[in-house]
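PROTEIN FOLDING TASK:
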Amino acid sequence: MTAPLTPPPPPHQEPSGEEASRPQQPLQQQPSLQQAPDSRSWQDWPAPSAGSGFGAAYGQDGPGMRTEVREAAVVTVAVALGGVLLGLLWWWLAPKVPLVGDILDDRWVVYVKESEGEQAIGVDGTFTLLALALGAMSALGVFLFRRRGGVPLVVGLTVGGLLGSVLAWRLGVWLGPAQDVIAHAKDVGKGVAFSAPLKLGAKGALLAWSVAALVVHLGLTGLFGPRDQEPVPPA
């Protein structure tokens, strides 16, 4: 027996007139599985979202200007009220300057009992040392309250120290002996020593608090404050 022969393929037939008149549609190209690489540059890519790791590097540095100004105002008021403590300490610890009243030509005169004494210098020195100590303490407290620098905070600390010094000066003068030395000499009698009123001869001592607070706060911020983060290179 012989195997059946495979029938030959049909011959190529020309399209009929109706089929030939139809427009031939081009074959659709199948999509390639391999896509061309994106030609966009790194500048065209969208910025990373706030929740991504790269977005945190471009966040705002610090709590914001409004918050810093509010904190600076609180620091100014708190430091200025510390001047009450400085005034009380100055009135208590400052040395007394003895005065003596006398009558010359039917007039009362007052002079210093110890002309070579250094009590007057000690009054200014006591105020300066106390202001330096309180300035350092206030700077330390502000740094512990907010472990970050900032121009508003430094300005508030400086202004508060100046206001506190002025308040301490006026409070010490008010608590000290009477300002009318002639009337005081008449009250105690001729030749009887009495204490002179508190007087701040060196007005530059009013800046001691602010200078100490500024130097200490800048030093603490430079040594223990947060460091600036290095910029993250673009992905």
Observations:
- The beta strands are 98-104, 107-112, 193-195.
- Residues 82-97+113-179+195-224 form one domain.
